[in-house]
Amino acid sequence: LAKQSAPNGLRFYDPAVQAELEARTEMERDLRVAIERQEFVLVYQTQVDSTGRAIGAEALIRWQHPQQGFVSPGTFIPLAEETGLIVPIGQWVLEAACEQLVAWADDDSTAHLTLAVNVSAKQFQQPDFVDSVRCVLARTGALPQRLKLEITESTVIGNVDDTIARMHQLKALGISFAIDDFGTGYSSLQYLKRLPLDQIKIDQSFVRDLHKDADDMAIVQTIIAMGQALGLNVIAEGVETQEHWRHLNDRQCHAYQGYYFSKPASAVEMVKRSLAPPPMLN
Ligand code: C2E
Ligand code: MG
Ligand code: MG
Ligand code: MG
């Protein structure tokens, strides 16, 4: 929208806005090509239990752009969501994740690992989403009991009943659900009460300073207590230091994810690290 409305109703030309618009158009075009040429890869970040042992991973998408190199999901996922390209991209992610689960199932040392997959609102709301998940499971042979879908509040907003119905259909297949970035939305508690969730992911913005900010600590402690009272598993994201881990562990958080345990890595690398002895709390 290069021509913005001025308060007096006149329209003016803004070169900065124009440049941004062109960059977006170009990225949208590149994204379409990327889907065709399969320029995406998944990396995996370990999730650990209270003893530090790997119990699973989260799959995170990466785009290897032929000219620009690595493009972060923070840049292209929002555009993919706006343009609807998230639907084919999300479908690819689901397939690749299920194939990874099948590969893990083949080996005793990895067969127990679960895999969490991020699902965007627009993808989840596709009329055939449940069917497409069913098809991917059937085609790949992945165990639904090892698959976890991460949704956010944006999926739920304005679609509460439909979201709940779909979640039940998917749960009937054996899939579990986490609510991602918990605490950053507007009406999280409403949803907590109504959605058939299995896990809450405490957003990393509350974890970052919890060792020095009493308010963050209070929020984290309350989320953990609430999760426990509601019978939900609670995982903290963005655990970067042993201090973070110790504070969360003292409050009986169930699971952890963050750079302290492992950065997102290739599947091979992730498994190699997860077989190493867990870090000790001292
Ligand atoms: P998210 O699902 O909340 O994923 C967590 C993000 O935090 C990841 O960023 C991860 O690399 C980063 N992270 C993990 N541990 C730490 C830590 O200790 N400290 C800090 N500062 N950051 C940490 P990433 O991979 O850049 O992904 C960003 C967001 O992009 C994700 O947030 C998710 O919303 C979205 N995303 C990633 N992959 C997919 C995907 O396959 N599908 C969809 N729909 N969205 C995705
Ligand atoms: Mg996530
Ligand atoms: Mg998150
Ligand atoms: Mg996030």
Keywords:
single chain; 282 residues; alpha/beta; 9-stranded mixed beta sheet; two-stranded antiparallel sheet; 11 strands; cyclic-guanylate-specific phosphodiesterase
Structure description:
- With 282 residues, the protein is of the alpha/beta class.
- The chain is 47% helix and 20% strand.
- The chain has twelve helices and eleven strands.
- The protein has helices at residues 15-37, 73-83, 86-105, 121-124, 129-140, 153-156, 160-173, 188-194, 204-207, 214-229, 242-250, 267-275, and strands at residues 3-5, 11-13, 40-48, 54-65, 69-71, 114-118, 147-151, 176-182, 199-202, 233-236, 255-256.
- The strands form two sheets. Strands 3, 4, 5, 6, 7, 8, 9, 10 and 11 form a nine-stranded mixed sheet that branches.
- Helix 1 (15-37) packs across helix 2.
- The longest helix has 23 residues, at 15-37.
SSE inventory with pairings:
Elements: E1 3-5, E2 11-13, H1 15-37, E3 40-48, E4 54-65, E5 69-71, H2 73-83, H3 86-105, E6 114-118, H4 121-124, H5 129-140, E7 147-151, H6 153-156, H7 160-173, E8 176-182, H8 188-194, E9 199-202, H9 204-207, H10 214-229, E10 233-236, H11 242-250, E11 255-256, H12 267-275
Parallel strand pairs: 4-6, 6-7, 7-8, 8-9, 9-10, 10-11
Antiparallel strand pairs: 1-2, 3-4, 4-5
The structure holds ligand C2E and magnesium ion (3 copies).
